[in-house]
């Protein structure tokens, strides 16, 4: 009930966005469907005339159908960039199989005697096709279009990952923020659209053959129009931003930034976190959100806009541990402490650069760093029955590197065995794993601990005022009290949210800080 | 009409499917107004031969001339629109009404809508499908016999001079088949048409044919009148083919004129062209007809006539 109320509030507040996303969603579905009909129906007809080709073509379309949608989008991005192109193309590929298959099945289902009689009466091949075969195949063909439509409405939610909009924006924002209301806000309209299209086309399918022909023709007119919904003019500005779903939704992300800096006239698209840097690099977008220590900043020549009003809370990396770990293995405390304050922003950016851009193995990066700092010890020989320290990490390179750093230190300086559980997904998953004891420690960021895990009232956040020490003190005390977990000492770098621009463009526009950006947009 | 040019002339037609020769060197003429029946066991090539005539199948060798013109030298649709075509499975367009099905060819030929409507109404009426009731119905609402009548009406709609029929009554039950066959025989529309009909039913062939082409393994065994096939078989195959139904066919073939050549036999319902079979039915029915002969006399004369035919053949 509470969720329901929250859901309606959300829709009410985001009515504009909801409408825009719904139209985009319909547009993506209809546009891709149109392409699939334009190619699939002639292809199906061709196969009905050349049955020898059918297994190969249907097989290929079937294989395309089995490629996971996320992977398909991934393949398409290098070819088509981000935006509606890869989204529509992926949806188009998914629609092909049902449409080709049902066209073929529909034509094959026409009684041979009817076709023979029609030819015997003197209908030309074209007339047999238009007046006999197509009308009689139409119910089956429509069933294929119906299947394709329902598939497309579902898959189109993924369009949000490639900055193509649609109802997936809410869904992925909700997943990133662990906000069920936001997920529902996108998922329910998407499901509603699927049901509505399904019912509509189901009704169409039951029409008589004659009416079906008219409706089919009407559909061919309607699809481009619906597809055109996607092209409805949207707010434009001097710069286009591309943000990850989480950034758009969380209080210290875009909403906080907009409020503090008075950012106006900055239209934005949502896309997968993994893609924002690429999008900026290829000038698909101009402003992105990112992390201040990301290796791609260096690799792609991006500039971090200085957060001169300190909107982004400090995100100092700190190992969070189960106190039991240090109690049972007191020798660990000193080992873990060897990294305290060792890694600055630029050092971390460089380590990340090696992983993200040079594709070096996190383990090798960790070893090289430790050797450089004289902290490297060769792993001690395994001791039978040794206790196991379970290290966790979230699913990105920086966390992998940190986990490997700690693993190497523990292996080299203690007799304990180490098990790394890397790639535990997002913040929530890591945190819950630590509470459950599935892992013994993982590197967390002070800002994340404050805003995502503790979620204090705005008054408390304001009172901390973004001061690094105050924030660390607060999360350390609260974690101890509420969860019985211990924050150790910071590693040194502040991997905070950052607004990034291409260095060259920022230089040309004279933008160094977020305030500069706000000023430029207001001009 | 030996002088009239043939409406259909087939010359040295050959057709193979793979290694299987289905039609082997078949030549024949069909005269205007004639009904030619292609008869033979299944697989003898009679349906293939029929489809060679309207180019639903193209021959490997040989030519078909329709009204003196090589069939291959005109667009195939134009050729087919001038030739009515009826098949065993009827093949009505399931999404067209009865009236629309009948109107297909006139429509293709660009006839005026009013003329098409009048023609459809007339044909349906003549084929015992009152248009008021049936014109707006769809094929699936009709019985098999009714569907075949619509198929026939459709073939006749544009008044083509030639009609091809492929086992048109084959899928019907015996009662319906007999009644539709009678209608077919008496149909005014067909009286002056050139008809080629495929069947494997010997009785049907004898009932409808002016001439019968008996086929086996893609070759003509004999092409002649029913009477000639019966009494002067060209080879053992022809003789064997009719052996089982010989007596019944003889009864249907010989007429009172054959039995009593010099005597005036006509009464109210028996004439010189009445078959022995029909005369017997008339004499032995529930209300026997009056005739100038008894059943015994009739059978005696029938025996004599048979002997004479045998003698004539042996000579």
UniProtKB/TrEMBL annotation, chain A:
Name of protein: ABC transmembrane type-1 domain-containing protein
Listed Pfam families: BPD_transp_1, OpuAC
Gene3D superfamilies for this protein: MetI-like (1.10.3720.10), Osmoprotection protein (prox), domain 2 (3.40.190.120), Periplasmic binding protein-like II (3.40.190.10)
The keyword Transmembrane helix belongs to this UniProt entry's keyword annotation: yes
Signal sequence coordinates: none
Topology relative to the membrane: Multi-pass membrane protein
Annotated ranges, domain ABC transmembrane type-1: 22-201
UniProt KW Ribosomal protein keyword: no
TM regions (residue ranges): 25-46, 58-82, 88-115, 136-161, 181-200, 212-232
Keywords: Membrane, Transmembrane, Transmembrane helix, Transport
Top-rank taxon, per record: Bacteria
Family: Belongs to the binding-protein-dependent transport system permease family. In the N-terminal section; belongs to the binding-protein-dependent transport system permease family.
Subcellular location: Cell membrane
UniProtKB/TrEMBL annotation, chain B:
Keywords of this entry: ATP-binding, Nucleotide-binding, Transport
Record family assignment: Belongs to the ABC transporter superfamily.
Positions of transmembrane segments: none
UniProt-listed Gene3D superfamilies: P-loop containing nucleotide triphosphate hydrolases
Molecular function GO terms recorded: ATP binding
Record Pfam families: ABC_tran (PF00005)
Keyword ATP-binding set for record: yes
Lineage, highest ranks first: Bacteria, Pseudomonadati, Bacteroidota, Cytophagia, Cytophagales
The keyword Isomerase belongs to this UniProt entry's keyword annotation: no
Protein name listed in UniProt: Amino acid ABC transporter ATP-binding protein
Domain ABC transporter: 8-242
Domain of life: Bacteria
């Amino acid at each position: 009930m509470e969720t329901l109320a929250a859901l309606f509030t959300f829709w009410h507040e985001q009515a504009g966005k909801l409408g825009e996303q719904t139209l985009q969603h319909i547009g993506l579905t209809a546009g891709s469907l149109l392409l699939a009909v334009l190619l699939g129906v002639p292809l199906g007809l061709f196969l009905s005339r050349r049955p020898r080709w059918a297994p190969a073509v249907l097989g290929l379309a079937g294989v395309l159908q089995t490629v996971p949608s996320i992977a398909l989008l991934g393949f398409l991005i290098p070819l088509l960039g981000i935006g509606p192109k890869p989204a529509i193309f992926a949806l188009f590929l998914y629609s092909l199989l049902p449409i080709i298959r049902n066209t073929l099945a529909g034509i094959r289902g026409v009684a041979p005697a009817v076709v023979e009689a029609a030819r015997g009466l003197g209908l030309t091949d074209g007339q047999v096709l238009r007046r006999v075969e197509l009308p009689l195949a139409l119910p089956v063909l429509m069933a294929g279009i119906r299947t394709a439509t329902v598939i497309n409405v579902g898959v189109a939610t993924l369009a949000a990952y490639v900055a193509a909009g649609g109802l997936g924006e809410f869904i992925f924002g909700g997943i990133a923020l662990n906000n069920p209301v936001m997920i529902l806000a996108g998922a329910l309209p998407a499901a509603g659209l699927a049901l509505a299209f399904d019912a509509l086309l189901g009704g169409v399918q039951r029409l008589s053959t004659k009416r079906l022909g008219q409706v089919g023709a009407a559909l061919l007119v309607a699809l481009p129009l619906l597809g055109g919904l996607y092209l409805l003019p949207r707010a434009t500005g001097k710069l286009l931003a591309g943000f990850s779903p989480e950034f758009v939704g969380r209080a210290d992300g875009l909403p906080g930034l907009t409020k503090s800096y008075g950012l106006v006239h900055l239209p934005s698209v949502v896309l997968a976190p993994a893609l924002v840097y690429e999008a900026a690099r290829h000038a698909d977008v101009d402003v992105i959100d990112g992390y201040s220590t990301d290796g791609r900043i260096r690799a792609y020549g991006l500039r971090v806009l200085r957060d001169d009003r300190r909107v982004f809370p400090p995100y100092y990396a700190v190992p969070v541990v189960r106190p039991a770990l240090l109690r049972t293995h007191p020798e660990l405390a000193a080992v873990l402490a060897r990294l305290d304050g060792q890694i600055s922003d630029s050092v971390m950016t460089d380590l990340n650069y090696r992983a993200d851009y040079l594709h070096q193995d996190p383990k090798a990066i960790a070893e090289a760093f430790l050797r450089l700092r004289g902290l490297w010890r060769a792993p001690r020989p395994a001791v039978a029955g040794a206790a196991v320290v379970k290290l966790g990490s979230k699913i990105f390179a920086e966390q992998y590197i940190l986990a490997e750093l700690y693993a190497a230190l523990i292996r080299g300086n203690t007799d304990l065995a180490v098990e790394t559980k890397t790639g535990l997904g997002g913040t929530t998953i890591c945190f819950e794993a630590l509470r459950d004891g599935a892992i013994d420690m993982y590197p967390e960021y002070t800002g994340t601990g404050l805003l995502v895990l503790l979620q204090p009232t705005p008054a408390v956040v304001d009172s901390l005022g973004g001061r690094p020490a105050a924030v660390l003190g607060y999360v350390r005390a609260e974690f101890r009290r509420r969860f019985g977990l211990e924050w150790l000492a910071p590693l040194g770098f502040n991997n905070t949210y950052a607004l990034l621009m291409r260095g060259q463009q920022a230089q040309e526009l004279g933008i160094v800080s977020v305030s500069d950006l706000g000023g430029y947009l207001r001009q | 009409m030996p002088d009239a040019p043939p409406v259909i002339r087939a010359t040295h037609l050959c057709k193979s499917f793979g290694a299987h020769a289905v039609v082997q060197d078949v030549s024949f003429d069909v005269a205007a107004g004639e009904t030619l029946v292609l008869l033979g066991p299944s697989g003898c090539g009679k349906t293939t031969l029929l489809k060679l005539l309207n180019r639903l199948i193209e021959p490997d060798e040989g030519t078909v001339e329709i009204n003196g013109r090589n069939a291959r030298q005109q667009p195939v649709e134009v050729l087919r629109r001038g030739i009515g075509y009826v098949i065993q499975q009827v093949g009505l367009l399931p999404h067209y009404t009865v009236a629309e099905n009948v109107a297909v060819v006139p429509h293709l030929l660009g006839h005026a809508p009013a003329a098409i409507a009048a023609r459809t109404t007339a044909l349906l009426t003549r084929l015992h499908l009152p248009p008021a009731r049936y014109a707006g119905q769809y094929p699936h609402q009709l019985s098999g016999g009714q569907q075949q009548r619509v198929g026939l009406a459709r073939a006749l709609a544009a008044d083509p001079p030639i009609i091809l029929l492929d086992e048109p009554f084959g899928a019907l039950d015996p009662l319906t088949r007999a009644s539709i066959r009678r209608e077919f025989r008496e149909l005014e529309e067909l009286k002056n048409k050139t008809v080629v009909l495929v069947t494997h039913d010997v009785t049907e062939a004898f009932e409808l044919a002016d001439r019968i082409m008996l086929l086996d393994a893609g070759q003509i065994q004999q092409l002649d009148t029913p009477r000639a096939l019966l009494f002067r078989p060209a080879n053992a195959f022809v003789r064997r083919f009719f052996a089982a139904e010989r007596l019944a066919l003889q009864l249907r073939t010989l007429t009172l004129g054959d039995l009593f050549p010099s005597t005036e036999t006509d009464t109210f319902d028996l004439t010189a062209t009445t078959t022995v079979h029909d005369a017997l039915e008339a004499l032995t029915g529930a209300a026997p007809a009056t005739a100038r002969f008894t059943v015994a006399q009739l059978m005696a004369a029938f025996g004599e006539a048979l002997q004479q035919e045998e003698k004539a053949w042996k000579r």
